[in-house]
Each structure stands twice: as structure tokens, then as C-alpha cells.
Amino acid sequence: MEIKNDLVLCPNGHYYNAAVHSACPICGGKAAQGGAGNFPPTERPGTGPALPPTGGVPGGAGNFPPTEDPRHSAGGAVSGVGPTEPASNWSAGGGVNPFSQPTMIGGDLAAAGQVDPVVGWLVCVDGPVRGTDWRLHAGYNYIGREVGDIHIQGDNQISREKHAMVAYHHKNRTYYVGPAEGRNIIEVNDEPVFNATKLNSHDVITIGTTKLMFVPLCGEKFAWDQEQ
Amino acid sequence: MIDTILICAAVVAVELVTTALPVAAACIIERAARPRWEAQRAACPAAGFGAPAPAPQVGKLHQQGARKSQQDCFSVSPEEVIPSYGLLTVVADGMGGLADGDKVSQAAVSAMMNSFYTTPGKPEELLLTLLARANDAVDRLLGPEGYGKSGSTLVAGLAREGKFYNLSVGDSRVCLYRDGALYQLSREHVFRHELELRAVNGESDFRTAYTHPKSGGLTSYLGMGKLKYVDMPAAPVEIRGGDKFLLMTDGVFNALPQEELTACLEGTAEECARRLDEAIRAKNYSNQDNYTAVILAY
Description:
The complex is a heterodimer of chains A (about 230) and B (about 300).
Chain A: E1 7-9, E2 15-17, H1 28-32, E3 118-126, E4 133-137, E5 139-144, E6 150-151, E7 164-169, E8 174-179, E9 187-188, E10 191-192, E11 197-199, E12 204-207, E13 210-216
Parallel strand pairs in A: 5-6
Antiparallel strand pairs in A: 1-2, 3-4, 3-13, 5-7, 7-8, 8-11, 9-10, 9-12, 12-13
Chain B: H1 2-13, H2 22-33, H3 37-42, E1 57-63, E2 72-76, H4 82-85, E3 87-93, H5 101-116, H6 123-142, E4 154-160, E5 163-169, E6 173-178, E7 181-184, H7 191-200, H8 206-211, E8 237-238, E9 244-248, H9 250-253, H10 258-263, H11 269-283, E10 291-297
Antiparallel strand pairs in B: 1-10, 2-3, 3-4, 4-5, 5-8, 6-7, 6-9, 9-10
């Protein structure tokens, strides 16, 4: 659709959009009723149509919460991969219907720096990288020394990849920890773990020579799917 | 030709805001040679410009194509405010096939236009501020759970004091038609550019870049939360008599090869819009996308 501009000229020479503002947003209701000279202190009368001080944009930005972007991976949003088109046809025509695919969102956004919303953290409380934290996302988080969702560098007692995993299940808002393909046994609160077991807030996972404290975000008080 | 140039540009500077055009590049060089032009411009009053720029003819093309809904949206600021504010044109392409694509593009265009008359700042800063307003509006519309599910591209052009500034997010385009040639002033945010970079860095190959099924996927768009890329040329275009600026959605330039598109751009702005419409209709694509173009003829 075309959006029309319903502009009104106030008595002080300011244009404004009457569809958005009932009175002039620059000089306010009083001036709009004919009280000339009521400029806000930061204005310079006589310089033509005056503009509001920076930051005072009426009808503009609201109070969008400062939550970190809880965007999901684009995979769920992009459905159906269309037929592969040769490069020469990407721009136009060429005998191939250029509209064989709808406009899509993203390429593989996961590779382009997009992340799932954080659901909790692991914090190293003992070990070579004491003080470091890692974000947990929903689903499985694999822990490895060099590869995986959580890299714990510098601890040679941790397998290179998939030593263990920490998982968050959206539906029941529960966290789990379990062994994966690692060689050394992991512990939770100094008890060995052989099958996936529930994780509770501030449990300490021992993996290699590293101790990781678990800090959850989601639970009774909060979950991304009920955040609104 | 433009396509080739853009690909070369991707090789050099995918992360940069690029104006990969002969004419625009010439403008940049000319500007660079002129000392202190920034200071000169800073000395201009914030509003009420001394030298009134002539109002361009405005041609509008806005059609649904073969789609079930019109998800494109556009707006052009009124001629009477040109002396005070300049001329702002906004075109947005709601994400095809996604729910609420029409609402997203309308929210973006409305927010940008509504803030235009009340937002101070030099042109580049103004455009970016208005983009922030548009993205805020889309964020509020979608809510955090709506990120990445619907979205919109947005291109905006601001003509002020004889210069044309433009900004883009997504894959709509801003072009300049001058002396019979069409120059692209904006760069699309599509996955192909990242694939090309991977190929340059030896992590992939060009064949993948050009045949990847998602190579046309948008890597930056309103509706993703924080925007990833914004395209804005390093310097504006000095407007000359006879110039035409074209802001369009992909329904236009995907339907018409560059030569055919260029061939539609002689004559008045209204004639250009009509010719573009006729050319696109003649293609008779069974699933022709929404197509929208605003032509500003000086």
C-alpha cells in the first residue's frame, strides 16, 4: 500500500503528521493554539521550521525492552528449498522464471553469527580457565576441549569433542547433564554420572580437572516462550 | 554488467558499505578532492534550506503481480515540505510468503515517514535515525518471538540541497539513471555475498556461491531484531538535471533484465512507471512477485 502523508502546518510553521499527533509535537499544544513564541529552551526562534532536541522524537521509538534478541535459528522460519538456479540466472530473466522462490530470510544464519536465546550458563569455578562463562542454548550443548558448543581450552583431561553434554528441554523447563563420548568420568556435586541426570541451580559439574557451576535462566519464573 | 561489478565489490569488501559504481565512485573522488566539504555542510542550517531544490516529478508503480496479497509498501513525502525537509522516499518489501509481511512493511514505512518531519540531523544521520525508528516499530509489531519469522526490506532516498542520499537494508535497490545508463547505488544483503567471501578465503568455492539454494536469502532485514548490515554510500550523489532515481523492490528487477529495465527509463517519471508496468506484465510470469518502484525525475 502507499502510505499517505497527512501533514498539517502549525501556527509556528512546523509541519507534522496529523495522523500521529493531535497537536504540533515541536512547539506543543499551546503554540498550536496560537500562542506564538513558546519555544522550548533549546530552540532557536527564527531559524525556520524548528526541530525538537535530539532524543525527543514524539511518536517514535517506544520502550522496547532491552532483552537480548531471543531469535530462533532461521531454520524454522525458512521452509522449502527451491530448485537450484544457475548463477547466471540470479539477477533476471534468462528464460528461467525469476520468481520460482519467494523472498527468503537468511542464508544459514547460524553460521552468520545468529544464536539461539540463552537459557543458562556454565561458569568455571575451578580449573585452567577459572572465571570463564559459557552460554547454554535449548537442546543439547556438547562440551569439548576444542570442538562443540562449549570449548574448554587448556584442560587436557577433557576429550577433544563431545566429552559430555548439558541439555535444556523447553517443554518441561528442565536441565540435564550426561556423559557423551568422553574418556574420563564426569561428576555432579562429586557424584559420578553415568546416565543423563537432572541439573539443579548451582550444581557443580566436574569434567577433567575443571569444575563448572551451572546457572539456569529458565524455570518457574521465566521461559522464552512465555516471555510475552 | 552491474552484477559483475557488484560481485567484484564483494570480493574486495563484503564488510564495507559499498558504492560499486563508476559514476558514484567518480563522485567520491571528486568529493575527496574538495577539502572541508564536511565542514561546509555542517554550517548549513538544520532546517529551512537556502537554495530550494527543484521538486522532481514522481512516478509511482505499485502492483500486486500474481501474489495473493500486496506486501510491498511505499511512501513519498509531500512536495510542499521540500524547502524545509527535502524529499524522502521509502520503499519496503514485506517478506514474501511469510505471515504479516504486509504489516511489517507498512509499520516500517509509516514509522520512517512519521519521524521524518520531527527528527533533526544531517542527511546521513537522519536516514539512519529513521531506520532505527522503523526497526523499533517492526520490533514492537513482531515481539521477540516473531523475530526471523516475518520481515521487510527497506530502501530510502533523501534528496536535500541538490544531493541524493540513500540507505538500504535487504535486497531492494536504489538506482540512478543518468545519460542512458543505470547505476546501482545500493548493495543487497544476500547470503550469496557471504558465500563469495568464503570462496575467496578458500573455505568454499564459487560454484557453491552461485548455485547455493539459499544464496538469495536475506542476511539483513527489518524483523530480525538487531540489524546485521545497513548499506549507505560513502558520499551522496550530486543531482544533475535529467537524473532519475529509482527505488524498487525485487519484483521489478527480477522480472526485467538490466537492459530491458533501463530501456523503460526514458521520458517523464509517469511514463517510466507505465513502461515498467507494461514490460513486467508482458513477461506474464505465473508467480510474478509484488512489484513497486518510485521514480524521481529531475
